[in-house]
């Protein structure tokens, strides 16, 4: 097995399982741990992997995106804390957009229930979860439903959004970078998010620390366009400060 074949194998394993460990890869591939570390370093430079202590995880790209079902199993405690912190920033907003994804779904569950609220979303799971709430009016964007994320996209969704002025939008991304902004693998998803950015008076990004520094295929926003960025304490304080210098309030919870 040559180096490129070995790296393809590592990438396939990472995408199948969500992450890989250096020790396990070395044993499985019959190479040294140093060889695996060099492979991971090369793959990180190519934008395919992000290294962690003792391993790595795959970066979502035009050819690879995790499903909603998988996302519900990863960093659940951190995402829950982020959702609670996000819900505390609703303020006097009467119309709120909730993006697709598991963290936004948790934000929807944490929204205040003591007053009327209209929630617009592209997520079938979020709309379903809010439908029974007495004081919340759930408005689901129309469009093609993406099987992996159970979210609507394409011109039906963007056409609906063009008719709205939204008080507050909670927006997610597959990656956020100071250099490349907020990105997502699918152009159709990117266009929905970009239209939300145009329609919303206030915008808040919510995502776990693994999103930071990751870059995907389609850029839809810049970090400085957000009022706040909410993440967990896995994001180093120094890096949080660098994002804060761009303008947003950065909350680590």
UniProtKB/TrEMBL annotation:
Q: Which UniProt keywords apply?
A: Repressor, Transcription, Transcription regulation
Per UniProt, residues of the HTH deoR-type domain are 3-58
Q: Say yes or no: keyword Iron-sulfur present.
A: no
Q: Which PROSITE patterns match?
A: HTH_DEOR_2
Q: Which Pfam families match?
A: DeoRC (PF00455), HTH_DeoR (PF08220)
Q: What role is this protein assigned?
A: Repressor of the lactose catabolism operon. Galactose-6-phosphate is the inducer.
Q: Which PANTHER family match?
A: GLYCEROL-3-PHOSPHATE REGULON REPRESSOR, HTH-TYPE TRANSCRIPTIONAL REGULATOR SRLR-RELATED
Query: Could you identify this protein by its name?
Result: Lactose phosphotransferase system repressor
